[in-house]
From TrEMBL:
Stretches assigned to the Cytosol aminopeptidase domain: 309-316
Keywords linked to the UniProt accession: Aminopeptidase, Hydrolase, Manganese, Protease
PANTHER family reported in the protein's UniProt record: LEUCINE AMINOPEPTIDASE-RELATED, PEPTIDASE B
Family under the similarity heading: Belongs to the peptidase M17 family.
Protein known as: Leucyl aminopeptidase family protein
Originating organism: Sphingomonas natans
Pfam families in alphabetical order: Peptidase_M17, Peptidase_M17_N_1
Protease among keywords: yes
Highest taxon of source: Bacteria
A single GO molecular function term of this UniProt record: aminopeptidase activity
Length: 465
């Protein structure tokens, strides 16, 4: 993974190139103060302060030059991303004593490269941004690392990112931060996690299902639980997807990637909580042993679930994990991430995770945090009348809503049945993918809702360094 630390460092008055940040509304006033040579360069480049545009400003000597970047009027984490991609290698300092603030994140992520599958990766120039706000450096670098972790885990092809690889990622993460990692796998799941076992049992032996848990923090601190859907490839099972529907299914473990990344932030920034992270990791494969439409599975909680559709498998593995997360000492807060439904994408598109919550204060805290850090989500209702769509003639509940309506809502209602009463719970139905590249946000795996969740946790629990 890209080492972000050398790209955002303390300003100790090193020799550096000045980088002006220019808005469209402030362009004319900025231009008037430039020397004629620089104004000519601006004119030739047709630079007008448009977001994402960059221009080199010549000085009196060949090796004397500065630069300008067009930025948004209100400020955005991505304001400096295009500059970080286009400018020559070197050290940069914002003009007039300005601080990068949230735009430092885009500067770092614009320089992230995932080249594991390039036979001859090109060396990338290093553009380093200086800041006198030294206290912001560690968290910004950690946040960039967490986002990059999501991207790399999701972008890795399923052949190389199965349940075993998710386990290895969790074990490495726990070891790096003095946490503990516990794994229940294969036939051992039958004793406590029957739905995780049922969904994953058709996979090859080396890709057998497992429940991965990380525990970290002082037992006296408030307990929080983070759960992530880890379906490493989703064929749809016996209700098989068409080829077009399988094309992006390597990203169906995007919820697990978000959970691992948020757990990394909690541990790296030493949030004063007792963390319990859970990832049910499976492959929804097809074999003679695959679970079938019409089967009835007994969950860890004891509810019997009729299988209306084997392609609604994510909620099954999450249900057993959510049940465990609420046992013994119930958490003060429970949040899950899942690439759960196409219905959420139809409703909200690729950029907005659908937020469901059984606690209004938690929902508003997440929404407010998302607005603050510009990582938005949209709340949808846990509409109780739609529980009727999950009725089963044979069992306690069906895993697939009838009628074809409100797919993301009925999926969230299904999950809610496995959350203990009194536990504040939020569910993010996220896409975990960017279908089109933008500066700092290439096409591919993407963290959506991660930064908002981290900002909410910081606000609630504070940080200790």
């Amino acid at each position: 993974m890209t080492d972000f630390a050398p790209l955002f460092i303390a300003d100790r008055q090193q020799l550096a190139t000045i980088l002006y940040t220019v808005t469209k509304s402030g362009f004319e006033a900025w231009l008037k103060d430039l020397p004629q040579r620089a104004r000519t360069a601006v004119s030739v480049a047709r630079f007008k302060g448009e977001v994402g545009s960059v221009v080199i400003l010549p000085g009196d000597k060949i090796d004397e030059w500065n630069a300008a970047a067009g930025v948004s009027e209100d400020g955005s984490p991505w304001d400096l991303a295009a500059a970080a991609q286009k400018l020559p290698e070197g050290l940069y300092r914002l003009a007039a004593g300005r601080q990068p603030n949230e735009a430092a994140l885009g500067w770092l992520l614009a320089q992230h490269r995932f080249d594991a599958y390039r036979s001859s990766p090109k060396p990338e120039p290093m553009r380093t941004l200086l800041t006198s706000d030294v206290a912001a450096i560690d968290e910004t670098v950690a946040l960039a690392g967490a986002v990059a972790l999501v991207r790399e885990l999701v972008d890795t092809p399923s052949a190389d990112m199965g349940p075993a690889e998710l386990q290895a990622a969790a074990e490495a993460l726990a070891a790096a931060h003095d946490g503990t990692c516990r794994v229940t796998r294969g036939e051992a799941l039958l004793k406590g996690f029957p739905m995780i076992h049922a969904v994953g049992r058709a996979a090859a032996r080396h890709r057998e299902p497992r429940l991965i848990e990380i525990e970290w923090g002082e037992p006296s601190h408030p307990r929080i639980a983070i759960v992530g859907k880890g379906v490493c490839f989703d064929s749809g099972g016996l209700d098989i997807k068409p080829a077009s529907g399988m094309l992006l299914m390597k990203k169906d473990m995007g919820g697990a990637a978000h959970a691992l990344a948020l757990a990394r932030l909690v541990m790296e920034m030493r949030l004063p909580v007792r963390l319990h992270m859970l990832v049910p990791a499976v492959e929804n494969a097809i074999s003679a042993d695959a679970f079938r439409p019409g089967d009835v599975l007994k969950s860890r909680q004891g509810l019997h679930v009729e299988i209306g559709n084997t392609d609604a498998e994510g909620r099954l593995v999450l249900a057993d994990a959510l049940t465990l997360a609420c046992e013994e000492t119930p958490p003060a807060l429970l949040i899950d991430f899942a690439t759960l439904t196409g219905a959420a994408r139809v409703a909200l598109g690729p950029d907005l995770p659908a937020l469901f919550a059984n606690d209004d204060a938690l929902a508003e805290d997440l929404l407010a945090a998302g607005r603050t850090v510009q990582d938005p989500m949209w709340r949808l209702p846990l509409w109780p009348a739609y529980n009727d769509m999950l009725k089963s003639d044979l069992a306690d509940i069906n895993n697939a809503g009838s009628g074809g309506f409100a797919g993301s809502i009925t999926a969230a209602l299904f999950l809610e049945r496995f959350v203990a009463k009194g536990v504040a719970w939020a569910h993010l139905d996220t896409f975990a993918w960017s279908p089109a590249g933008k500066p700092g946000r290439p096409k591919g795996g993407e963290a959506l809702g991660l930064r908002a969740a981290w900002a909410m946790l910081k606000e609630r629990f504070g940080t200790v360094r």
